Amino acid sequence: MTAPTRHPEQLSTTTLLRFATAGSVDDGKSTLVGRLLHDSKSILTDQLEAVEHASRSRGQEAPDLALLTDGLRAEREQGITIDVAYRYFATSRRRFILADTPGHVQYTRNMVTGASTAELAVVLVDARNGVVEQTRRHAAVAALLRVPHVVLAVNKMDLVDYAEPVFAAIAEEFTAYAASLGVPEITAIPISALAGDNVVEPSAHMDWYGGPTVLEHLETVPVSHDLTACHARFPVQYVIRPQTAEHPDYRGYAGQIAAGVLRVGEAVTVLPSGRTSTVSAIDALGESVDIAWAPQSVTIRLADDIDISRGDLIAPSGDAPAVTQDVEATVCHVADQPLTVGQRVLLKHTTRTVKAIVKDIPSRLTLDDLSPHPAPGTLVANDIGRVVVRTAEPLALDAYADSRRTGSFLLIDPADGTTLTAGMAGASFTAAAGPEAAAADDAAWDF
After folding, report:
1. Which residue in 88, 101, 266, 313 has a CA-CA distance of 20 to 30 Å to 135?
2. Do residues 232 and 262 touch, judged by C-beta distance below 8 A?
3. Computed from CA positions of residues 156, 159, 165, 166, in that sequence, does the dihedral angle turn out positive or negative?
4. How many CA atoms lie within 13 A of 369 on its CB side?
5. Contact of 299 with 280, CB cutoff 8 Å
6. Which residues have a Cβ under 8 Å from the Cβ of 63 and sit 6 or more positions away?
7. Using one digit for the tens of pLDDT, what is the confidence trace for 310-346?
C-alpha cells in the first residue's frame, strides 16, 4: 500500500487531541474526568457497574465517578490520584487521549510525564480556595512544556452558590499569571464536576456564563500540531543491509520522521559527521514513494555510501541543526536520588545515547514567584531548574521551543538505567516571559 496522496499541507487538521488534567489535591480532577466520560457516554456498562458496586461498598448512594480513573488500590483507599491515568475516548467530532495527572507536590514529575505530549492542559481550581501554589506550579509546568492551550476549570461552583464574582476573580488572577509565563491561550470555564455543570451539558445555574462547556471546547479548540510544518528531522534507528542475492547493494536507514517532510532528490546532511548526500529513494510500507512526512516510519536511501549508524540524524542541508557538546537546558528532576554537579550520566536524545557529565546547575526555580534560586548545587525529586551538561560526543539538538521532539532529552543513571531528569534544551519560559520575547516565540508554540 502506498502513502496517502494528500499533500502534507493538508494534514494540519487532525481529529485527535491529546490533553492532560492537573490541579491541587481534592480539586476534583478524577471526578471531572469521570463526569466527562460518563456524560459523553464513553463508559462501558460493566465499567459503570463496577464503579457503582465499589461506591455502594463505601457507603455512597451515587456512583463515585472518580473511581473510573483512580485504579490503584492506594488511590481508592485515600481518595487521591498517585499515578498518571491514561484514558481513550471519542465523540462524533474528535478522538481524545487523556492523561489524568496527580495533584500532590511530590508527584509534579508525573505531570511532566502526562503533559509532555499534550496539546492542551486542563488546570482545575477549587472555587473555595482560588489560585494556590500548586495551581501556579502546574501552570508553570504547562508553560515550560510549551503546551499551547490551557483551560482553567474553576470547579465546585455549586459550593459557592454559583457566584459569578468568585469565578471572575479567580479567572483574572490565573490568566495574569499564566500570561506572564508566555502561555499563548487561556480559557476559563466555571464548572461543577460532581453535579455536571458545564462539563458536557451547559449549566442551568450559571446563566451569566456564555462560553463553551469543557467538552465543547475540547471538541472545537484549533489544534495545530502539524509536524510537517516543522524543520525536517530523521533520527536513524536502524541500518538495513540485507546483502542477499536479490538485494546485494541495498543500504537503507530506517526510522520515524520526527518532524518535517523529506523528498527524493533533496540534499541532506548527516549529523554529527557533517557529511552530505542526496536522498535517492524513500521506502514506505514496502513501496517506493517520492515524499514522506512526520510521523511516518520509513527507510531512507542515499546516493552516497556514508558511515551512518543508529543515533545519527539526517536533515536537509539548508536547514540542519547546530551540533554541540555543551547542552544548556531547563530540566525537571524525576528521580528520588538527587542530581549533582560533577555527576556522570547518560544523555538520551532521540535514538542517540552518549556519555555526559553535569558541569553546572546554575539555578533552581521557585515556582511561587518564578524567582531563580542561584547555584543550588543539586536538584532533588520534582525540582525544576537549569543545568549545563557536557557530552562526550556531539549532538544535533534543536531548541525545545522549536521542536518538542528533537529539543527534548533524558538524563539516565549509567549504573542501573534509571531515568534521572527530563530536559528541554534552550531557554526556559522565564527567558520568554517578556512581551517582546513572548511575541517572537508564539509561532513556535503550535506543534
Report:
1. 88
2. yes
3. negative
4. 3
5. no
6. 48, 51, 52, 55
7. 999 999 999 999 999 999 999 989 898 999 999 999 9
